[in-house]
Amino acid sequence: MTRLRRDIILSICCVFLILLSGHPAFGWHDRTHLAVAKAAEYDGWYNAAGPDMAKLKFGAAEGTNHWCNNSSGLDVTPSVVLDQAAKYNKASDGEGHLYGAIIASLRAYMKDREGGKYAEYHMAYCAHYIGDLGMPLHNAPFDEFNEARHSAGDDIVELGVLNNIGLIQNNIYPIVIGGEADLAVEIARIANIGRRLALRLREENREMTQDEAYMQLSHSASLLRAVLGYARKAK
Questions:
Q1: 126: closest CA among 213, 57, 228?
Q2: Per-residue pLDDT for 5 more than 90?
Q3: Which residue has the higher pLDDT, 233 or 219?
Q4: CA-closest candidate to residue 169, choices 63, 50, 45
Q5: What is the CATH number that goes with domain 3-234?
Q6: Rounded CA gap, 178 and 89, in Å?
Q7: Each residue of 29-80: pLDDT tens digit?
Q8: CA distances from 43 to 36, 46, 53, 60 (A)
Q9: In the chain, which ranges are E strands?
Q10: Residue 43 backbone class (left: φ over 0; alpha: ψ -120 to 50; beta: rest)
């Protein structure tokens, strides 16, 4: 098999996996992810958009880490969060497993760091997923409404967000994480805030406002700051 033919087959497979996932590669745009990381004072903030680039080559194997359809319509619980961790990087999970991806990427970071390996890219993935957690439509079924409104939501603050990091930081609040159980509780809490906002947007048939978006970004930045603090203490 020639290299060209192999590359063509690989590209077709990636497209197929994205289609199989039932969810396109939406998410906050690059500057929005960077702003969350900067607001949380993450040293590696410049890597926070990288996981979206990875979706180009890995398709649903990476894409399903970025959202959760939550088609049950029920509140997210800490047990749901922890159960999802085993699905990390699994392309076959059409429901998506954003919540577990946060847990699993932090586990990978801690494991590699303890093993003396360079672990920072795992933290960049974790930071990105925490950013996605704040996007309300990442916590709701990908139905006709979600598909129609998603791109506008992703872009709602993109243009000026790096000049308005203070709008995120002004609403950062303390979160204490002593272990995975605490982290799962906080992930579930923020997921449910986003899910309820998504339901309200659907009921009112409208897009998210900039004020709502900045508040959602503050939830993500608050959690990321807490995760960074926990990781430093555990070092």
A1: 228
A2: no
A3: 219
A4: 45
A5: 1.10.575
A6: 26
A7: 999 999 999 999 999 999 999 999 999 999 999 999 999 999 988 999 999 9
A8: 12, 8, 20, 28
A9: none
A10: alpha
